[in-house]
């Protein structure tokens, strides 16, 4: 087996280039935002060869963590890996990392690994546009349809596009929402980089009442999916169900643009956002957070084990039982 870890090269992706999550430009933007290094891990065994997109975090104390799925679990997508192979790959990776200076492996994934302990409560909610937008509308509860219509009767309008003006309006609402939640927002420069370097993967939604921006979101787009990444809502307009209206109009946007799925993003299971998104979602799955220590054997331990091995090799068989009782539990 062998493992090689190399920095990302800012080249145009040659595979899966219809997805933002493996785009080197997007990965570089995420890395700068979270103070990580975007890397590629080449893991090779006799039977398999994996190329793993990852991120490396280093502390000033010298500790290093390899992260699969930083920012979004989909940044850890490993091409040509089946669910059955995924657990084998993670086991192999953790074993090989013990030969490096990396202390911890962190994984955010939709793949369940039975022998690992999930450390989060995240759930991803999706709305599959089948058989049609109209059919989905009819399946919604009468109360949900009523709440969607409410802001529309107030003159709610919306625009979807990618330009600096829409970004300004989004960021104003995004920052307001994060302030209300007591959370720190990404700096505006982060989103400016996104629209400058990844415009083909983005759609910015802004909803208005009486010309005032009241709700907005930045979405990732691919030929088959729209992924709701970040959102914001005006504090004074929360009670008018403008967020629900935005979600529904993004469903209509998916249908009109021929996309199959509106991904509503992650939420903590049972939280208010999770319960709210369940009004629309028709499919969900768990996002697992795993953490695996990968300590390297200490030099002292390695020398002691080598000495014990030499002693065993040079000891007559007649005294092996005694040595086993004294040494086996310490070194094997």
TrEMBL record:
BioF2-like acetyltransferase domain location is: 142-268
The record's annotation in Pfam families points to:
Acetyltransf_6
Q: Which organism is it from?
A: Thiothrix lacustris
What is this protein called in UniProt? BioF2-like acetyltransferase domain-containing protein
Identify the domain of life: Bacteria
């Amino acid at each position: 087996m062998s493992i090689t870890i190399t920095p990302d090269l800012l080249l145009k992706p040659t595979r899966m280039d219809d997805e933002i999550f493996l785009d080197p430009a997007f990965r570089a933007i995420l890395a700068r935002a979270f103070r990580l290094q975007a890397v590629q891990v080449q893991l090779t065994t006799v039977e398999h060869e994996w190329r793993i997109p990852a991120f490396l975090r280093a502390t000033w104390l010298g500790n290093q963590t390899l992260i699969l799925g930083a920012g979004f679990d989909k940044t850890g997508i490993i091409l040509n890996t089946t669910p059955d192979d995924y657990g084998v790959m993670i086991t192999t990776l953790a074993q090989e990392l013990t030969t490096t200076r990396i202390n911890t492996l962190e994984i955010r994934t939709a793949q369940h690994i039975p022998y690992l302990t999930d450390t989060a409560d995240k759930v991803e909610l999706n709305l599959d546009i089948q058989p049609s937008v109209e059919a989905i509308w009819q399946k919604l509860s009468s109360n949900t349809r009523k709440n969607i219509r409410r802001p529309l009767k107030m003159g709610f309008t919306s625009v979807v596009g990618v330009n600096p003006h829409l970004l300004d309006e989004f960021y104003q609402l995004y920052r307001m929402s994060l302030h209300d939640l007591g959370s720190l927002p990404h700096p505006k420069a982060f989103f400016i980089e996104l629209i400058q370097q990844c415009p083909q993967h983005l759609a910015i939604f802004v909803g208005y009442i009486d010309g005032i921006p009241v709700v907005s979101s930045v979405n990732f787009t691919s030929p088959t999916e729209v992924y709701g990444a970040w959102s914001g809502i005006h504090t004074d307009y929360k009670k008018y169900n403008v967020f629900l209206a935005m979600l529904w109009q993004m469903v209509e946007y998916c249908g009109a643009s021929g996309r199959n799925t509106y991904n509503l993003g992650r939420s903590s299971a049972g939280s208010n956002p999770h319960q709210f998104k369940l009004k629309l979602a028709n499919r969900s799955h768990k996002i697992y957070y795993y953490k695996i220590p990968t300590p390297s054997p200490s030099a002292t331990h390695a020398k002691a084990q080598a000495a014990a091995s030499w002693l065993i090799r040079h000891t007559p068989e007649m005294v092996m039982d005694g040595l086993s009782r004294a040494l086996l539990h310490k070194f094997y």
